[in-house]
Amino acid sequence: MNLYRYIFALLLALTSFGLQATHNRAGEITYKYIGGYTYEVTVITYTKVTSQIDRCELSVEWGDNTSSVLPRINGSVSNCAPAHDGEVLGNDIRRNVYQGTHTFPSPGYFTISVEDLNRNSGVANINNSVQVPFYVSTTLLVNPAIGPNNSPILLNYPIDEGCIDRMFVHNAGAFDPDGDSLSFELVNCRGLNGRELTETYDPNYVQDSIYIDEYTGDLIWDQPRNIGEFNFAFVIKEYRKGLNGNYQLIGSVTRDMQVNIGQCNNRPPTIQVPTPHCVEAGSTLNFNVIATDPDNNTISLSATGGPFEVTPSASFPNPSTGPSPVSEPFSWTPSCDQVRFQPYFVYFRAEDIPSNPPSLVGLATVEIRVVAPSPKNPSA
Asked: Is the pLDDT of residue 284 over 50?
Protein backbone atom coordinates (compact mmCIF):
# COMPACT_ATOMS: atom_id res chain seq x y z
CA MET A 1 0.00 0.00 0.00
CA ASN A 2 2.84 2.40 0.79
CA LEU A 3 4.19 1.89 -2.75
CA TYR A 4 0.79 2.61 -4.33
CA ARG A 5 0.34 5.72 -2.18
CA TYR A 6 3.78 6.97 -3.20
CA ILE A 7 3.13 6.36 -6.93
CA PHE A 8 -0.18 8.21 -6.66
CA ALA A 9 1.48 11.13 -4.87
CA LEU A 10 4.26 11.22 -7.48
CA LEU A 11 1.77 11.27 -10.37
CA LEU A 12 -0.25 13.95 -8.64
CA ALA A 13 2.83 16.09 -8.10
CA LEU A 14 3.95 15.73 -11.71
CA THR A 15 0.54 16.50 -13.23
CA SER A 16 0.11 19.58 -11.05
CA PHE A 17 3.66 20.85 -11.51
CA GLY A 18 2.54 23.81 -13.63
CA LEU A 19 0.44 25.10 -10.73
CA GLN A 20 2.62 24.10 -7.80
CA ALA A 21 6.34 24.78 -7.86
CA THR A 22 8.08 22.32 -5.56
CA HIS A 23 9.57 23.58 -2.42
CA ASN A 24 12.15 21.72 -0.29
CA ARG A 25 15.47 23.54 0.26
CA ALA A 26 17.16 21.96 3.32
CA GLY A 27 16.59 20.07 6.55
CA GLU A 28 17.57 17.52 9.21
CA ILE A 29 16.16 15.16 11.88
CA THR A 30 17.16 15.22 15.57
CA TYR A 31 15.97 13.31 18.64
CA LYS A 32 15.67 13.62 22.41
CA TYR A 33 15.63 10.78 24.92
CA ILE A 34 12.37 10.47 26.91
CA GLY A 35 12.77 7.16 28.74
CA GLY A 36 13.03 3.43 28.11
CA TYR A 37 12.87 2.92 24.34
CA THR A 38 10.94 6.18 23.77
CA TYR A 39 12.33 9.24 22.00
CA GLU A 40 10.98 12.60 20.91
CA VAL A 41 11.88 13.24 17.27
CA THR A 42 12.04 16.65 15.59
CA VAL A 43 12.07 17.09 11.81
CA ILE A 44 13.05 20.54 10.54
CA THR A 45 12.66 21.50 6.89
CA TYR A 46 13.31 24.74 5.03
CA THR A 47 11.03 25.42 2.09
CA LYS A 48 10.06 28.09 -0.48
CA VAL A 49 7.43 30.49 0.82
CA THR A 50 6.23 31.26 -2.72
CA SER A 51 5.55 27.61 -3.50
CA GLN A 52 1.89 26.63 -3.49
CA ILE A 53 2.85 23.37 -1.84
CA ASP A 54 2.81 23.50 1.96
CA ARG A 55 3.02 20.66 4.45
CA CYS A 56 0.91 20.85 7.62
CA GLU A 57 2.31 17.43 8.48
CA LEU A 58 5.02 15.01 7.35
CA SER A 59 5.26 11.23 7.27
CA VAL A 60 8.24 9.73 9.12
CA GLU A 61 9.64 6.23 8.71
CA TRP A 62 10.99 4.97 12.05
CA GLY A 63 13.27 2.25 10.72
CA ASP A 64 11.31 -0.53 12.49
CA ASN A 65 8.79 -1.13 9.65
CA THR A 66 6.40 1.45 11.09
CA SER A 67 5.67 5.07 10.23
CA SER A 68 3.82 8.04 11.70
CA VAL A 69 2.48 11.38 10.54
CA LEU A 70 3.93 14.27 12.55
CA PRO A 71 2.19 17.67 12.80
CA ARG A 72 3.92 20.99 12.24
CA ILE A 73 4.26 22.74 15.62
CA ASN A 74 5.72 26.19 14.83
CA GLY A 75 4.01 29.31 13.56
CA SER A 76 0.33 30.21 13.66
CA VAL A 77 -2.65 31.41 11.59
CA SER A 78 -2.84 28.89 8.76
CA ASN A 79 -5.11 26.29 7.21
CA CYS A 80 -3.45 23.58 9.27
CA ALA A 81 -5.25 22.09 12.25
CA PRO A 82 -3.90 23.01 14.72
CA ALA A 83 -2.95 26.31 13.08
CA HIS A 84 0.81 26.29 12.53
CA ASP A 85 2.22 27.68 9.31
CA GLY A 86 5.94 27.66 10.04
CA GLU A 87 8.32 30.59 10.48
CA VAL A 88 9.12 32.90 7.57
CA LEU A 89 12.81 33.85 7.64
CA GLY A 90 12.94 36.14 4.60
CA ASN A 91 14.53 35.54 1.19
CA ASP A 92 11.63 33.19 0.28
CA ILE A 93 12.52 30.76 3.10
CA ARG A 94 10.09 29.09 5.49
CA ARG A 95 11.30 27.09 8.52
CA ASN A 96 9.01 24.16 9.45
CA VAL A 97 9.24 22.15 12.68
CA TYR A 98 7.46 18.77 12.97
CA GLN A 99 7.56 16.80 16.21
CA GLY A 100 6.32 13.54 17.74
CA THR A 101 7.32 10.64 19.99
CA HIS A 102 8.01 7.01 19.15
CA THR A 103 8.72 3.90 21.19
CA PHE A 104 11.07 1.47 19.49
CA PRO A 105 10.34 -2.25 19.86
CA SER A 106 13.79 -3.39 21.02
CA PRO A 107 17.44 -2.39 21.33
CA GLY A 108 19.33 -1.88 18.07
CA TYR A 109 20.22 0.63 15.37
CA PHE A 110 17.29 2.37 13.69
CA THR A 111 17.34 4.78 10.74
CA ILE A 112 14.68 7.48 10.98
CA SER A 113 13.93 9.04 7.60
CA VAL A 114 11.72 11.55 5.82
CA GLU A 115 11.05 11.69 2.09
CA ASP A 116 8.98 14.50 0.58
CA LEU A 117 8.07 15.61 -2.94
CA ASN A 118 10.10 17.53 -4.11
CA ARG A 119 13.20 19.75 -4.04
CA ASN A 120 12.95 23.28 -5.35
CA SER A 121 13.68 23.82 -9.02
CA GLY A 122 16.97 25.07 -10.41
CA VAL A 123 19.45 23.48 -7.99
CA ALA A 124 22.65 23.65 -10.03
CA ASN A 125 24.28 20.42 -8.81
CA ILE A 126 21.21 18.14 -8.73
CA ASN A 127 19.96 16.99 -12.12
CA ASN A 128 16.36 18.12 -12.73
CA SER A 129 16.01 18.94 -9.02
CA VAL A 130 12.35 19.93 -9.35
CA GLN A 131 11.46 16.26 -9.88
CA VAL A 132 13.84 14.84 -7.24
CA PRO A 133 12.36 14.01 -3.80
CA PHE A 134 13.94 15.51 -0.71
CA TYR A 135 15.33 12.86 1.65
CA VAL A 136 17.09 13.13 5.02
CA SER A 137 17.80 10.52 7.71
CA THR A 138 19.15 10.08 11.21
CA THR A 139 20.53 6.92 12.82
CA LEU A 140 19.84 6.09 16.46
CA LEU A 141 21.25 3.35 18.69
CA VAL A 142 18.70 2.18 21.24
CA ASN A 143 20.72 0.52 23.98
CA PRO A 144 20.00 0.92 27.73
CA ALA A 145 23.59 -0.15 28.48
CA ILE A 146 25.03 3.09 27.04
CA GLY A 147 22.69 5.28 29.07
CA PRO A 148 20.37 8.05 27.85
CA ASN A 149 21.36 9.59 24.53
CA ASN A 150 20.25 12.76 22.76
CA SER A 151 21.33 13.68 19.24
CA PRO A 152 23.40 16.80 18.63
CA ILE A 153 21.29 19.88 17.97
CA LEU A 154 22.22 22.19 15.08
CA LEU A 155 22.15 25.82 16.16
CA ASN A 156 22.84 27.55 12.81
CA TYR A 157 20.41 27.52 9.89
CA PRO A 158 21.31 25.40 6.82
CA ILE A 159 20.70 28.08 4.18
CA ASP A 160 23.50 30.52 3.42
CA GLU A 161 24.76 32.93 0.79
CA GLY A 162 28.10 33.38 -0.94
CA CYS A 163 29.72 35.02 -3.95
CA ILE A 164 31.69 33.69 -6.90
CA ASP A 165 35.46 33.84 -6.43
CA ARG A 166 35.06 34.33 -2.67
CA MET A 167 35.78 31.64 -0.08
CA PHE A 168 32.55 30.31 1.44
CA VAL A 169 32.48 29.00 5.04
CA HIS A 170 29.55 27.45 6.90
CA ASN A 171 29.20 25.77 10.29
CA ALA A 172 26.06 24.02 11.50
CA GLY A 173 26.81 24.95 15.12
CA ALA A 174 26.44 21.36 16.36
CA PHE A 175 26.12 20.95 20.14
CA ASP A 176 25.79 17.60 21.87
CA PRO A 177 23.97 17.99 25.22
CA ASP A 178 25.47 14.72 26.51
CA GLY A 179 29.08 15.72 25.80
CA ASP A 180 29.60 12.92 23.28
CA SER A 181 32.40 13.09 20.71
CA LEU A 182 31.34 14.41 17.28
CA SER A 183 32.95 14.05 13.87
CA PHE A 184 31.88 15.53 10.52
CA GLU A 185 31.96 14.04 7.02
CA LEU A 186 30.70 15.19 3.62
CA VAL A 187 28.17 12.88 1.94
CA ASN A 188 26.04 13.02 -1.20
CA CYS A 189 22.53 14.45 -1.06
CA ARG A 190 19.80 11.81 -1.39
CA GLY A 191 16.60 11.45 -3.36
CA LEU A 192 13.96 8.80 -4.08
CA ASN A 193 14.11 5.95 -1.53
CA GLY A 194 17.33 7.39 -0.14
CA ARG A 195 19.25 7.00 -3.42
CA GLU A 196 22.54 8.89 -3.41
CA LEU A 197 22.68 11.81 -5.84
CA THR A 198 26.21 11.24 -7.11
CA GLU A 199 26.29 14.53 -9.00
CA THR A 200 26.34 16.50 -5.70
CA TYR A 201 30.11 17.14 -5.87
CA ASP A 202 30.55 16.52 -9.61
CA PRO A 203 33.29 18.87 -10.93
CA ASN A 204 31.05 19.65 -13.90
CA TYR A 205 28.80 21.52 -11.44
CA VAL A 206 31.13 22.30 -8.52
CA GLN A 207 34.47 23.37 -9.99
CA ASP A 208 36.46 23.99 -6.83
CA SER A 209 37.22 21.91 -3.78
CA ILE A 210 34.75 21.52 -0.92
CA TYR A 211 35.81 19.97 2.37
CA ILE A 212 34.67 19.84 5.98
CA ASP A 213 36.86 19.93 9.09
CA GLU A 214 36.06 16.63 10.79
CA TYR A 215 36.74 18.14 14.24
CA THR A 216 35.17 21.64 14.16
CA GLY A 217 32.55 21.11 11.44
CA ASP A 218 33.68 24.08 9.35
CA LEU A 219 32.50 23.47 5.75
CA ILE A 220 34.74 25.36 3.33
CA TRP A 221 34.19 25.93 -0.39
CA ASP A 222 37.29 27.44 -1.96
CA GLN A 223 36.04 29.03 -4.24
CA PRO A 224 32.63 29.00 -5.99
CA ARG A 225 32.95 29.63 -9.74
CA ASN A 226 29.30 29.66 -10.88
CA ILE A 227 26.18 31.58 -9.88
CA GLY A 228 23.23 29.52 -8.64
CA GLU A 229 21.71 27.46 -5.85
CA PHE A 230 23.71 24.44 -4.67
CA ASN A 231 22.82 21.69 -2.21
CA PHE A 232 25.37 19.79 -0.13
CA ALA A 233 25.05 17.28 2.69
CA PHE A 234 27.17 16.18 5.61
CA VAL A 235 26.80 13.65 8.41
CA ILE A 236 27.56 14.33 12.08
CA LYS A 237 28.63 11.10 13.76
CA GLU A 238 28.28 10.70 17.51
CA TYR A 239 30.64 8.51 19.56
CA ARG A 240 30.69 7.49 23.23
CA LYS A 241 33.39 5.68 25.19
CA GLY A 242 32.29 2.26 26.40
CA LEU A 243 33.31 0.24 29.44
CA ASN A 244 36.11 -1.37 27.39
CA GLY A 245 37.63 2.08 26.76
CA ASN A 246 36.80 2.06 23.04
CA TYR A 247 34.58 4.64 21.35
CA GLN A 248 31.31 3.32 19.89
CA LEU A 249 29.18 4.92 17.19
CA ILE A 250 25.84 5.64 18.89
CA GLY A 251 24.11 7.80 16.31
CA SER A 252 24.39 10.16 13.37
CA VAL A 253 22.51 13.16 11.97
CA THR A 254 22.62 14.09 8.27
CA ARG A 255 21.98 17.68 7.25
CA ASP A 256 21.06 18.66 3.68
CA MET A 257 21.91 22.35 3.21
CA GLN A 258 21.54 24.96 0.45
CA VAL A 259 23.97 27.70 -0.64
CA ASN A 260 22.95 30.56 -2.92
CA ILE A 261 25.99 31.85 -4.83
CA GLY A 262 25.64 35.28 -6.42
CA GLN A 263 27.69 37.86 -8.29
CA CYS A 264 29.13 40.66 -6.16
CA ASN A 265 32.16 42.84 -5.60
CA ASN A 266 31.81 42.42 -1.87
CA ARG A 267 34.45 40.86 0.40
CA PRO A 268 33.60 38.90 3.58
CA PRO A 269 34.35 40.22 7.06
CA THR A 270 37.14 38.73 9.17
CA ILE A 271 37.05 37.86 12.87
CA GLN A 272 39.91 38.14 15.33
CA VAL A 273 39.44 36.01 18.43
CA PRO A 274 41.89 34.09 20.67
CA THR A 275 41.55 30.30 20.74
CA PRO A 276 41.72 27.70 22.27
CA HIS A 277 40.87 28.31 25.92
CA CYS A 278 40.88 26.27 29.12
CA VAL A 279 38.87 27.46 32.12
CA GLU A 280 38.44 26.02 35.60
CA ALA A 281 34.85 25.52 36.75
CA GLY A 282 33.87 28.45 38.94
CA SER A 283 36.33 30.80 37.22
CA THR A 284 35.38 33.37 34.59
CA LEU A 285 36.65 33.30 31.03
CA ASN A 286 36.76 36.70 29.32
CA PHE A 287 37.99 37.67 25.85
CA ASN A 288 37.19 40.19 23.12
CA VAL A 289 35.92 39.39 19.64
CA ILE A 290 36.75 41.85 16.86
CA ALA A 291 35.06 41.75 13.43
CA THR A 292 36.43 43.88 10.59
CA ASP A 293 35.04 44.42 7.10
CA PRO A 294 37.56 45.16 4.30
CA ASP A 295 34.94 47.23 2.46
CA ASN A 296 33.98 49.17 5.61
CA ASN A 297 30.41 47.86 5.50
CA THR A 298 28.24 47.72 8.59
CA ILE A 299 28.67 44.41 10.44
CA SER A 300 26.27 42.23 12.42
CA LEU A 301 28.27 40.09 14.89
CA SER A 302 26.59 37.14 16.64
CA ALA A 303 27.48 33.87 18.38
CA THR A 304 26.03 30.40 18.96
CA GLY A 305 27.37 27.28 20.63
CA GLY A 306 27.31 25.04 23.69
CA PRO A 307 28.10 27.73 26.29
CA PHE A 308 24.81 29.46 25.39
CA GLU A 309 22.81 26.21 25.77
CA VAL A 310 23.75 25.41 29.38
CA THR A 311 23.15 27.00 32.80
CA PRO A 312 24.89 29.22 33.71
CA SER A 313 25.15 30.38 30.12
CA ALA A 314 27.71 32.60 28.43
CA SER A 315 27.23 36.32 27.90
CA PHE A 316 27.61 38.01 24.52
CA PRO A 317 25.60 40.73 22.72
CA ASN A 318 23.51 38.77 20.20
CA PRO A 319 23.68 40.34 17.71
CA SER A 320 25.81 43.44 17.89
CA THR A 321 25.49 45.68 14.84
CA GLY A 322 27.62 48.68 13.96
CA PRO A 323 30.23 50.16 11.64
CA SER A 324 33.45 48.22 11.04
CA PRO A 325 35.24 47.28 13.22
CA VAL A 326 32.85 45.79 15.79
CA SER A 327 34.37 44.69 19.11
CA GLU A 328 32.40 42.86 21.82
CA PRO A 329 33.29 40.99 25.05
CA PHE A 330 32.57 37.29 25.57
CA SER A 331 32.20 36.11 29.18
CA TRP A 332 31.40 32.72 30.74
CA THR A 333 31.63 31.35 34.27
CA PRO A 334 30.97 27.60 33.91
CA SER A 335 29.92 25.57 36.94
CA CYS A 336 31.04 22.07 37.91
CA ASP A 337 28.04 20.75 35.96
CA GLN A 338 29.76 21.88 32.76
CA VAL A 339 32.94 19.86 33.38
CA ARG A 340 33.33 17.23 30.66
CA PHE A 341 35.98 15.50 28.58
CA GLN A 342 34.88 16.97 25.24
CA PRO A 343 35.42 20.71 24.61
CA TYR A 344 32.69 23.26 24.01
CA PHE A 345 32.67 25.26 20.78
CA VAL A 346 31.50 28.81 20.20
CA TYR A 347 30.74 29.84 16.62
CA PHE A 348 31.17 33.56 15.97
CA ARG A 349 29.48 34.88 12.83
CA ALA A 350 30.12 38.29 11.25
CA GLU A 351 27.74 39.25 8.45
CA ASP A 352 28.29 42.43 6.47
CA ILE A 353 25.42 44.67 5.36
CA PRO A 354 26.44 46.09 1.97
CA SER A 355 24.45 48.59 -0.06
CA ASN A 356 24.11 45.94 -2.80
CA PRO A 357 23.30 42.39 -1.62
CA PRO A 358 24.19 39.62 -1.18
CA SER A 359 25.74 39.82 2.26
CA LEU A 360 28.85 37.80 3.01
CA VAL A 361 29.80 36.04 6.22
CA GLY A 362 33.01 35.48 8.16
CA LEU A 363 33.16 32.68 10.74
CA ALA A 364 35.45 31.85 13.64
CA THR A 365 35.23 28.69 15.75
CA VAL A 366 36.55 28.91 19.32
CA GLU A 367 37.35 25.84 21.43
CA ILE A 368 36.80 26.01 25.21
CA ARG A 369 37.68 23.23 27.64
CA VAL A 370 36.14 23.25 31.12
CA VAL A 371 38.15 21.42 33.79
CA ALA A 372 37.31 20.57 37.40
CA PRO A 373 38.61 22.88 40.16
CA SER A 374 42.00 21.99 41.57
CA PRO A 375 42.25 20.85 45.22
CA LYS A 376 42.43 23.79 47.61
CA ASN A 377 44.60 23.97 50.76
CA PRO A 378 45.68 20.30 50.81
CA SER A 379 47.13 19.02 54.08
CA ALA A 380 48.31 15.71 55.40
From this structure: yes
Please, are residues 360 and 161 in contact by the beta-carbon 8 Å criterion? yes
SS (H, E, C) the chain: CHHHHHHHHHHHHHHCCCCCCCCEEEEEEEEEEEECCEEEEEEEEEECCCCCCCCCEEEEECCCCCEEEEEECCCCCCCCCCCCCCEEEECCEEEEEEEEEEECCCCEEEEEEEEECCECCCECCCCCHHHCCEEEEEEEEECHHHCCCCCCEECCCCEEEEECCCCEEECCCEECCCCCEEEEEEECCECHHHCECCCCCCCCCCCCEEEECCCCCCEEEECCCCCEEEEEEEEEEEEEECCCCCEEEEEEEEEEEEEEEECCCCCCCEEECCCCEEEECCCCEEEEEEEECCCCCEEEEEEEEHHHCCCCCCECCCCEEEECCEEEEEEECCCHHHCCCCCEEEEEEEEEECCCCCCCEEEEEEEEEEECCCCCCCCC
Residue 32 and residue 99: Cα distance in Å, rounded? 11
Annotate 88-109 with b (16+ C-beta within 10 A) or e (fewer): eeeeebbbbbbbbebebeeeee
| Mean pLDDT value of segment 250-260 | 97
380 vs 115, residue with greater confidence: 115
> What pLDDT shows up at residue 21?
61
pTM of the model: 0.90
Separation of alpha carbons 282 and 304, rounded Å: 22
Q: How long, in residues, is the chain?
A: 380
The confidence band for 14, taking pLDDT boundaries of 50, 70 and 90, is very low
Contacts of 45 (CB under 8 A, 6+ apart): 24, 25, 26, 27, 55, 58, 95, 96, 98, 114, 116, 134
pLDDT recorded at residue 77: 62
Residue 72 dihedral angles phi and psi, to the nearest 5°: -80, 135
In this predicted structure, the answer to whether residue 364 has a pLDDT above a threshold of 90 is yes
| Mean predicted lDDT score pLDDT of the chain | 91
How far is 270 from 349, CA to CA, in rounded Å?
9
Segment 267-291 shows an average pLDDT of 96
| Chain segment 309-346, per-residue pLDDT in tens | 999 999 999 999 999 999 999 999 999 999 999 999 99
